[in-house]
Amino acid sequence: MGCPAHHTTQAARMPLYGEEFAADPGAVYDRLRAYGPAAPVELAPGVEATLVTEHESALRVLQSPALFARDSRRWKALAEGRVALDSPVLPMMVYRPNCLFTDGTEHLRLRKAVTDSLGRLNVNRLGRDVERIADYLLDQFSERGMADLLNDYAKLLPLLLFNQLFGCPAGIGDRLTANMAAIFDGQDVMRANEELTACLMELVALKRRQPGNDITSWLVEHPSGLNDEELKDQLVMLMGAGVEPERNLIGNALLLLLSADSSTGRSGMRVEDAIDQVLWNNPPIANYATHFPVQDVELGGVPLPADTPVVISFAGANTDPALTEAHQVLSKGAHLAWGAGPHACPAKDPAQLIALTAIERLLNALPDLTLAVPQGSLRWRPGPFHRALVALPVRFSPTPGLRTAAARPVTASQPATVPPARTQTASSSGGTAPAKQKGWWSSFLDVFRL
Ligand code: HEM
C-alpha cells in the first residue's frame, strides 16, 4: 500500500463531524497520523481542510505568521462558492474584524486592547465573583439531590460571569445570556445573533456615557481608540472564545474527577491535576486555529496549497506519540490547549482560575457527588472544533441552599437547564426596564443585591 498522503481524494477525507468522531476522536487522530504530520479532513459536509496532528508541525504553523495567515477572506473555496453558506462551521471560520481573524499590525492593535483590558482584572475579585455565581447556581439545584452538571452549572457559570466582567445591568445581561446560550445551542441562531449585537451595542453606548470598573469600559477607554463596531466585535469574540471552552474545561475536568476508580466513586485526583490532564488529553478546543498558507507550502512532506484551510489539532498534537509521558509530567505547560504563537489565548491564567474555583466550590458544597449514569453511556456533542459533553448527570445528598431561592429565574418545577428566552426589553438608559419574568442575570443580581 502506498503512502496515504498521496491519495488525498475527496473519498479519503476523514469526516470530523458526526457521532463516530465525537465518540472516539483519539482513534481518528491515530488513523490520520498514517498520512504524516497533517492529513485531509472534512470539517462539515463539503468543507475540506488539512488537519495538523503532529506537535512539532503544529508549532511550526502557529509560530510562522508570515507564511500562515489567519484572515479567512483568503479562503479560495469559499470565495469561489464551493462552500455552502449555511454550513454549520462557517460561524467559526468566516472573517470577522477581531483578534482571531486578523494578521500583522491590525491584529496587534486589536489584541493589545484585549490583553491590556484582561490585564486589569483583579484576581481576588475574579475568584470572589466565580464563588458567588457558583453559590447562586448551586442553590438552584442542591435540594434536588440530582443535577446535570453540564447544563445546570458548567454552562451557566461562564455566561453569568461574563455579564459580571462586562459590567452588564440586569436587562442587558439577561438578553446577553439568553441569546449567547441560544447561539451555542443552535436555536434560532440568526435572530439570537441580531439580538446579541443589539444588546452589546447598547452596552457599549452605556459604558461610553457611564464608564465603570469592567472590561467593556476598559476597552472603551483603551488608547487604541476602538470604534463602536470594533468594540462590539471584540466583546462578541471574548464571549465566544471564553464561554464555550470554559464550560468544557469545567465539564471535562468534573468527569475525570467523578470517574469511579475506587470504592468512593471518585478518582481521588486533585482538581489542578484533573485540569492539567484535560488540557493535555481532552482539550476543550480540540481542533481550531484555522490558517491559510499565503503560498503553496510543504509541511513534513504534506503539500498545503495556498489559501486552503489548515486547522491545528490541539488534541492530536498533545497526544502525538512522539511526546513521551514524561513530557506531560515534566513540562506541564508544553501542551497546545491554549494555542501558541501570536494568537495564543490571552486569558490562560484567568481561565484556569475560573475553572479551578468553580470546581472546588461545587465539590466542597456537595461532597458525596457521584455520576448518576455509567461513564460509558455519556455522550459527546458532535462537531469538529470542541470536546464537549452533552450532559453530565450526577446525584448527591440533597443539601439546603445557602440563600433563599426567592429570585429563581424559572418556576420551581422547571429544571434549571435552559436560560429563559428573552424576557424584557432594555430601556434606552441601559436595560433597566422592569422584568416581565426574571432572567438568570437579573435574578442573580437580586440575590446578591448588586
Ligand atoms: C478553558 C478555557 C479556554 C481555553 C481552553 C482557551 C483556548 C484558546 C485557544 C486554543 C486559543 C487560540 C485560538 C487560535 O489560535 O485560533 C484561544 C484564543 C483566544 N482566547 Fe482563549 N481559551 C479559554 C478561555 C478564554 C477566556 C475565558 C477568554 C476571555 C476572557 C479567552 C479569550 C481568547 C481570545 C481573545 C483569543 C484570541 C487571541 C488572538 O487571536 O490573538 N479565552 N483561546
Provide the CATH superfamily. Answer: Cytochrome P450
**If helices are DSSP runs of H or I spanning 4 or more residues, what is the number of helices?**
18
Strand order of the largest sheet: 1-2-3-9-6-4
Structural class: alpha+beta
> Distance N terminus to C terminus?
67 Å
| Series of secondary-structure elements, N-terminal to C-terminal | EHHEEHEHHHHEHHHHHHHEEEEHHHEEH
- What gyration radius follows from the Cα positions, in whole Å? 22 Å
CATH first level: which class? Answer: Mainly Alpha
Uncertain spans: 1-11, 410-435
How much of the sequence lies in strands comes to 5-15%
How many domains would you count in the coordinates? 1
Kindly state the mean pLDDT as a whole number? 88
Give me the CATH fold name.
Answer: Cytochrome p450
The small molecules bound here are: protoporphyrin IX containing FE
Characterize the biggest β-sheet: 6 strands, mixed
Tell me, what's the shape?
globular
Give the strand tally.
Answer: 11
CATH architecture: Orthogonal Bundle
Helix residue percentage: 40-55%
Features:
9% strand; six-stranded mixed sheet; 11 strands; 450 residues; single chain; Cytochrome p450; disordered N terminus; plasmid; three-stranded antiparallel sheet; alpha+beta; binds protoporphyrin IX containing FE; 18 helices
